[in-house]
TrEMBL record:
The keyword Nucleus applies. Residues 216-324 are annotated as: Disordered. It holds the Pfam family PRP38. Residues 226-299, 311-324 have a biased composition (Basic and acidic residues). One of its GO terms (biological process) is mRNA splicing, via spliceosome. The keyword Nucleus applies. This is Pre-mRNA-splicing factor 38. Required for pre-mRNA splicing. It is found in: Nucleus. Belongs to the PRP38 family. GO terms for cellular component: spliceosomal complex. Keywords: mRNA processing, mRNA splicing, Nucleus, Spliceosome.
Amino acid sequence: MEVSYENEGYDNDYQSKSKGSILTRKNNTMPVWGNERTMNLNTLILTNIQSSHYFKVNLYELKTYHEVIDEIYYKVQHLEPWEKGSRKTSGQTGMCGGVRGVGAGGIVSTAFCLLYKLFTLKLTRKQVTGLITHCDSPYIRALGFMYIRYTQPPGDLWDWYESFLDDEEEMDVRAGGGQTMTIGNILKSFLFKLEWYSTLFPRIPVPIQQQMEKKMSEKYPPVVEETPRRINIPERNFRDRDDHRNRGDLSDTARPRERNERRERSHRDYRDRDYERKSSNANSRERSPYVSRRDEYKKSSSRSPKYGSSKRRDRDDYKSRSKY
């Protein structure tokens, strides 16, 4: 007789959200996709985890699945692979200074140490389901989803994540705080973005990525903005309006008399206004205070018809007096 493992290994706090026969004895053993020794982690992160005092001393004493869960509940406060300010990449260039986790390391985070500790326990399917449905801390759930992203075949990721894409439980994922994300947004980032802060997830084959994008578009169809409907206005309203497209079609007799009178009045106003502007400009030139000064200067320097200019007249008088 086939034995069901649906309730084995769960506390009362666990709430299973799985569908179908995911917790049967046949598929209770979790496969490991990729490198079974490194958990597909970046080499630099894995080296720092294995050489850290926290992993070698503190986590070495934890032997059971529930002890690791309690440690996650008390110690994990963010989901970055490095502690804040511990990794210096400002003076490095190229591959050593990028976000690929290659270059000078730092203090590896508690979250990634516990993530690798979960990998060493060789979790079963019901244990992973207990992680992602845990109700005590969102960081326990997040590490469960990250464990799935690193260790499970890409073709199974959508089946694991689909029922949690609308989860609104929030957590702060940045070291030092400042970036709050929901579980649903974190899972969408895991599915469709290769980078997670300063490390990379295992690559997803292009055909599987396209299938997930198609399923995502079916689950969340794009919202199309409705164009406002055009109101059918009667033809007479268009004829009453002074539209430049209809001026040639309508004769002067068809237009209202008031409109013609208004146009003639406006033309007269413009004409009178132009006349007043011209006359005001002419008067302003005549009333200029500089006109009288200019005329006096012309008179003083003008040549007399009989004696010439005043300067020449004075010069001739001086010469005539000097002779005597």
